[in-house]
Amino acid sequence: MDQREFADTKKCLMNGRITAIHIRQQHTAAPWLAFLSIMLVAFSATAQTRRYPTNPANRGGGIAGTQARSLSVPRIPDADQAKYIFLNIDPQGVGHCYIDAHAFNYFRQLVVDWSDPNDPTCNALHASLWGHGTWTSLDFVDQNYPDMSTYLTSLNEWGIAFGVYWSNSYPYLPQPAAGINVRTGRWSVLPDTEDLPYNQGFSMNNNGLAVGVATDLDNSVFKHWIWDGRKYHFPAFPADWDVSTNWAGPLFINDFGQIAGQYVDRKSGRMRGYFQDGWYGGKVTTFDAPGHPSGGTYVNRMTNSGNLLLIGLYDETSPYYPAHSFSWRRGVFTSLPNVPFRDAVLTHVFGLNDQGDICGVWWDNNNLGHAFVGYRK
After folding, report:
1. Cα 120 to chain center, whole Å?
2. Beta-bridge partner residues of 249
């Protein structure tokens, strides 16, 4: 095996402590081509659900198709478009069955997840760094398993892109929560969690605090976790919260230890967002997007200043139909614009930084996704 794993050879400053972690050296052979997209992972439909569940806020073609049939529905005016400079960042100039600009740091670097446009199954996922017009592959490469998929959902100011990688052909290989240093190409792997083989990282802050979830082979056990730099903590949830899914519980953590996430309200059956002012037991605030969307409220990002990025899914009676993005700050909602590109029928904002820049994905009338960035003027 050309990949070598070094245990306890690098020490990282995490949460104020020097902590030994495992490092994987990325193979030096030419990495897979980088661009954009995500959705489900490979194997069978059952394995896709088990191996990598779809973000409920990101149902791709289904939502785009609904919007494409309803362009006459009144929509919220996009006067705020004038506050941004929008760029389409499809490097091949084509759409994808899944693509998103998923994470955005202070230095205006983006992590973009994408599926190969030449793969009609949309199974193999890639991750790339986009910084001021330059693309760099962030794929995990292993010559023993040439069909690896990579999915990264956060990028901190230290240049650590955090998420998960797995093998498409060997679904029962352990799936680690892991991060890559975008400058060096080195991978850091968190320990396994209570004998649960699938461990997915969601986000890591600049202090090494991280959040994610571990599951079993059957996707019947969910252990949402907080990593403090040395060990896992497993938070408890209220009885009326259903977090029995990967995209629930704590999803994002900032440098102040504040947490943002989502859960299904057992009474209404609706996805709701929440904000916790301190991962160690701070006050919890729950909320719905404006208009109390029947399809649910989904949290997609949190900044160090405490701004949350969320999407509401609505029915046909709402002017926001079928979806709209907002930022949330201490109870105040701010509408975020749809992209101004021709043929855009739906916009989801996935990334937000403390400068007010946004990034995400828009869909066209053919249900193809395109990544974008909007720089705040």
Report:
1. 22
2. 262
For residue 181, what is the domain's CATH number? Answer: 2.120.10.30
Nearest Cα residue to 20 out of 191, 262, 276, 237 = 191
Provide the whole-model pTM. 0.80
β-partners of residue 250 are 261
What CA–CA distance (Å, rounded) separates 374 from 338?
10
CA-to-CA separations, 255 to 156, 228, 258, 261, 307, in angstroms, rounded: 10, 12, 7, 16, 13
DSSP 339: P
278 versus 174: the higher-pLDDT residue is: 278
Mean pLDDT of 177-202: 93
Between the alpha carbon of residue 338 and those of residues 86, 140, 343, 359, the distances in Å are 10, 33, 12, 11
Q: Is the pLDDT of residue 189 over 60?
A: yes
How many domains are contained in the chain?
1
Q: What are the backbone dihedrals phi and psi of residue 46, each rounded to the nearest 5 degrees, phi first?
A: -65, -45
Per-residue pLDDT tens over the stretch 212-271: 999 988 888 999 999 999 999 999 999 999 999 878 999 999 999 999 999 999 999 999
Do the beta carbons of residue 152 and residue 111 sit within 8 Å?
yes
Q: In what order do the strands lie in the sheet with 5-14?
A: 5-14, 17-25, 186-189, 177-181, 160-167, 148-155
Sign of CA dihedral 203, 24, 105, 375: negative
DSSP string, 70-93: TTTS-----GGGGGEEEEE--TTS
In which residue are the tokens 């794993």 written?
A: 5
What is the number of other CB atoms lying within 10 angstroms of the CB of residue 282?
A: 14
Q: For residue 289, what are the β-bridge partners? A: none
Domain assignment of residue 94, given as a range: 5-376
Residue 45 Ramachandran class (φ > 0 left, ψ -120 to 50 alpha, else beta): alpha
| Statement: residue 7 has pLDDT above 70 | no
Spatial distance between the Cα atoms of 100 and 114, rounded to a whole number of angstroms? 7
| Residue 48, pLDDT above cutoff 70 | no
